[in-house]
Structures are given as structure tokens and as C-alpha cells.
Amino acid sequence: MIKIYTSPSCSSCRKVKKWFEEQKIPFEEHNIFNAVLNPDELKDILIKSENGTEDIISQRSKIIKENNVDVEDMTITELVDFIRKNPSVLKRPIMVDDHRIQVGYNSEEIRTFIPRARRIAEMACTGDCYEDCSEITKLSK
What we know:
Helices cover 40% and strands 11% of the residues. The chain is an alpha+beta fold. It has two domains: 2-107, Glutaredoxin; 114-141, no CATH class. It is elongated and about 55 Å long. It has seven helices and four strands, in the order βαβααααββαα. Strands 2-1-3-4 form a four-stranded mixed sheet, covered by helices on one side.
């Protein structure tokens, strides 16, 4: 299941949710301000982040700037605790599934969340309506 970490005032978060709804791809929304983030979920996000904290922590965050926080000097446990206490330091939205992570809305990169079989069907379709395309029928046989 795809998890999307959002905040209410985030326009990119609204775009991402709308895109998933339009694509009819199920997701779980996690508002980062409604509940304390689960340490295991945060560790999973960090593990999947190609560039670690650089990908998910906003250096422009008020908390980071005002307190001169260096997340690179923190242990994983300290970092997870810091994020749990200060969720506003996270870039948003963060989309995570079993294999990948994407931070922010990017209209091209988000397509990786479309199931593989549907992407293949879309590529095989010669018309504009891949759902009704006769080529899909051929692929499924």
C-alpha cells in the first residue's frame, strides 16, 4: 500500500492526492501533524531515501535555521526522535511504497507508482483510451 505523508496547507500534497485518485490507485494518507510519526515508518523512509536526510529534511525549516540544527551529526535514533518532535522539518509530500520513495510532486516521476501491468497496457495501446483498447485484450491472453 502506498503511503502519502502530507500536511493540510500543502498544495503539492493536494496535487499528489488528486493524481492518485484520478489514477484510481489506492493510498493511505498520513497527516504529519495529526499524529506522532511511527519510528519504524521514519526509518523506512530514511532507508529508501537515495541521499538520506538531504532528500527528506528541509534545511529552510524554521526549526533547523533558528536552532542551527545539523541533522548530519545525529544518530539515527536522535534523528527519528527529532523528526517525531518536529514533523514540520519534513519535505512534503512524501510517497512511499514497498520499493520506492518520492518526495514532492513531479508529474513524470510520480508515474512510477502506476502498476507495471497498467504501464505496459498504456504503452501497447494505439488509441487514447487504453482501458477499452483491443491491444490490451491481446496482451491479457
